[in-house]
Each structure stands twice: as C-alpha cells, then as structure tokens.
Write a structure and sequence with these properties.
Elements (H helix, E strand, L loop, with lengths): L2 H13 L23 H6 L6 E7 L5 E7 L2 H7 L8 E5 L18 H7 L3 E4 L26 H20 L3 E6 L1 H10 L2 H4 L2 E7 L11 H8 L2 H7 L4 E2 L4 H9 L10 H6 L10 H7 L4 E2 H13 L9 H8 L18 E6 L7 H10 L5 E5 L6 H4 L3 H15 L7
Parallel strand pairs: 3-4, 3-5, 5-6, 6-9, 9-10
Antiparallel strand pairs: 1-2, 2-4, 7-8
The protein binds 2-acetamido-2-deoxy-beta-D-glucopyranose.
The site of 2-acetamido-2-deoxy-beta-D-glucopyranose has 5 residues, from loops.
Protein name: Lipase
Pfam families: Abhydrolase_1
InterPro entries: AB_hydrolase_1 (IPR000073), AB_hydrolase_fold (IPR029058), Lipase_euk (IPR025483)
C-alpha cells in the first residue's frame, strides 16, 4: 500500500467519525480552498437532478451553503413548490459535508433515492466545510473562526437550517443524520423551539454517548491527548488534507497498532463499500472541522457525558454559571417525535452499549434496525444501503402519513 493511499484511507477513516474520507495529495490543508463549483454543479446536476443553492446566516455570523434537490421526473411533472413532497433535511457526519449523500450512483445514494421518492431534499453543510461560505466578518485564518464545537453546530447551524426550511416550505421537516449529524440532531431536539419544527427523524449510527468507542486508533489519540496537544500547538482548524495532520496520524501507528487497515481501526470493519471508488471519495473528503470540536468529542469519550463543552471549572463558571458544563438532557426530546435508528454490529464508533444508554434516556421507543456486519461508513457508502436501510427508512417516513397526495 503506497503512503498516499494509506493516508487517504486514514483520512477517510477519521472523517468517518461522522463519515468521510481524506486525501493527502494536492492542496494544502490550510485556509485556501480548492477551486470549486457548487455542490449542485459538482455532484447533483450532472446526475440529472434539479438542484438549487441557498446561503443562510447563523446567529453567530456563519454563512452556510444549503442545497435543495428534487427528482427530475417530479420537477417536470409538478413544477411548483406547492406540489413538492415533504421536506427532508440531511445532516452529514464529522469531516464530511453534504456531498456525503451523493457519493455513489443515484440508486445507491440516499440523497438521490429520497428525491426519487418525491421528497423535497435539503442538504445541510455545517460551518468549516467546503460547501459553507465563511463568516460575515471573521476570515478563516482567524482562530476565532474555528472557535466552536458540535454544540454550536446543534444550537446555531441546525437551528438556522431548520428555521429556514420551515419558513420556505411551511412544513415540519424530516431529519436524517449520520454520526456527528446524529449528535447535533439529538442536542438540537432537546431544544423546544427547534424540535417543534421537526416531523420525525431517522438516525444512522446514532451517537449521544461515546464512552464505549472501541476504535483502537481513536482510543490511542484520546489516551495521548492529541486533541489538547493540537490546541496547545495553536492549531485551530483540523484538516486532514494537510500534510502535517496526515503525518500526525501516521505517527500514531506502530507494531501494536498497524496502519495497514487504518480505516477499520477508526470506523470498525466495513462490510460493503466499493473499494474501487476510494479515489473518487477522496476528491470530496475529508472536509475540515475545528480542533475544539475534536476536543469536545474526546471529552465525551473520556467522561461518558453528553454535555456542553467543558472549559475547565473556572471558565465553566463564567460561561455556564456552574463548575460543570450543562448536560443535553435526552429526556427532553418529546415522546411524540417519531424516531427511527439504524446501527451496526461492527461500528467501532457508535457502540451498541452507548446506543442502549441513549435509548434508555429517550422518552419514546424508537424503531430500530440492526445490521450485524455494518461498520461506521457502510451507513453512507454500502452498496446495499438502499435495500438494507434507505427503503425501510422511507417506509417509516411514509407511514407517518404525510404523503396523502403521492
Ligand atoms: C465500484 O466502483 C467502480 C469505480 O467507480 C465502478 O466502476 C463499479 O461499477 C462500482 N461497483 C458497483 C457494484 O457499484
């Protein structure tokens, strides 16, 4: 295995914490962006699906790209918004972005499959990804641009995206998340102003607790306090397309932790994705995130908590008025919110024990699908995902009775 390929695999793996790949070649991982089209132009329009781009602004000034996709046939047939199906919002994982839902062929990729079923598909992209558009005043070079974790993704990005879709469609929204996309969904659903606009949610590799993560490479990073080390080095943007970050990962491997199957040492063994497409995946993945976000995720692994960011006692007192960061209380998610979840027996990040902890705290009893041989990225990239996951998910959405006209 060449080093580039290995690094790429690594990046993929890491990104998969919420799902995505990595690349090491070409561009610097710094503040310069790859010359690019829009997500619509890059992956969606070429497959023949109508797609439009929106930019929305969060309360704290970030500019997020949002795409709206419909099926080619329904667009021809219907024409106006009034006749679109119910809105579905897709929330990608860590080190990924909205492209995650369009990486395979139209009959294998959730974004296209939902559009084919007549859904009004909205594609979220959180701050820091290539499909988001910066900040009203902070340049990406500024460390304050990267001063956030998934807490802000939940309370600002998800909140604003849902508000916006709700204001355009006048409808409650179906939410689909993968990995970090489920962390921010759970956190957002504890907020009454957000959850009242949500019709139901389908969560792939659902995560709220992380203290049973079994991925050896992740555990090693946690143990070595890589998250704190990076922050103390003054690195605020985390981008595995950059050489130093890729080197850092490789430096963690040794005889006890081989890098030959780095993807598996981060995500668990994936059964079903197409290895010949890795190069293509790496053209998109991974996207950047913040070092503070990694630090927050590692706090969850160390403490077994699902709480706001822990600044340490003194600063917590200033931020929260308490020594300990406040919890996101899963029992506040309304019992009336229909939930569907799918998890995998080989998923080293969304562990079965942690999921049971989540289920115990939720007031409702979600519909649950278990796929014994699925690892963390199979939920996005499996060649059988449509039969295994997307068809049952769509049956669940349709059973909720929003499809009277379809
Ligand atoms: C796997 O990926 C390769 C390269 O993109 C493609 O030619 C092949 O059709 C894919 N296989 C399946 C089963 O989709």
């Amino acid at each position: 295995m060449g080093i580039e390929r290995l690094l790429a695999t690594l990046a993929i793996t890491l990104s998969i914490l919420s799902g995505n790949g990595n690349t090491v070649h070409s561009f610097d991982g710094g503040t310069h962006q790859k010359p690019q089209h829009s997500l619509c132009e890059e992956l969606i329009l070429p497959s023949g699906y109508p797609c439009s781009e929106y930019t929305i602004q969060t309360k704290d000034g970030f500019l997020l790209g949002l795409q709206r996709v419909s099926s080619s046939s329904s667009a021809l047939r219907l024409g106006h918004d009034a006749e679109r199906g119910p809105p579905v919002l897709l929330l990608h994982g860590l080190f990924m972005a909205g492209d995650a839902w369009f990486l395979n062929t139209p009959d294998q990729s959730l974004g296209f499959v939902l559009a084919d079923h007549g859904f009004d598909v909205w594609v979220g992209n959180v701050r820091g990804t290539r499909w988001s558009h910066g900040h009203v005043s902070l340049p990406e070079k500024n460390k304050q641009f990267w001063d956030w974790s998934w807490q802000e993704l939940a309370l600002y990005d998800v909140a604003e995206i849902i508000n916006y879709i709700n204001s355009i469609t006048n409808s409650k929204i179906f939410v689909v998340g993968h990995s970090q996309g489920t962390i921010i969904s759970f956190a957002a659903f504890t907020q009454p102003e957000i959850v009242k606009k949500v019709a139901a949610a389908a969560l792939l590799s659902p995560i709220s607790y992380l203290d049973h993560v079994s991925a050896p490479l992740v555990l090693r990073m946690v143990k070595m306090h890589i998250d704190k080390m990076i922050l103390s080095m003054g690195v605020h943007q985390l981008n595995f397309k950059s050489e130093w970050a890729a080197n850092l990962l490789v430096s963690l491997c040794d005889t006890r932790l081989s890098c030959n199957d780095m993807l598996s040492s981060i995500t668990g063994k994936n059964c079903c994705f197409n290895e010949s497409r890795v190069e293509f995946y790496l053209e998109q993945e991974p996207h950047a995130s913040s070092s503070k976000n990694l630090n927050h995720l590692f706090q969850m692994i160390r403490k077994g908590s699902f709480s706001k960011y822990d600044y340490g006692k003194l600063k917590n007192l200033i931020e929260y008025g308490k020594f300990k960061p406040p919890k996101f209380d899963l029992s506040r998610i309304p019992k009336s919110l229909p939930l569907w979840m799918a998890y995998g027996g080989n998923d080293a990040l969304a562990d079965v024990t942690d999921l049971q902890h989540t289920l115990k705290e939720l007031p409702s009893t979600p519909e649950v699908v278990y796929l014994e041989n699925y690892g963390h990225i199979d939920f996005i990239l499996s060649l059988q995902a449509k039969q295994d996951l997307y068809d049952p998910m769509i049956r669940f959405f349709k059973s909720l009775g929003k499809f009277t006209s379809m």
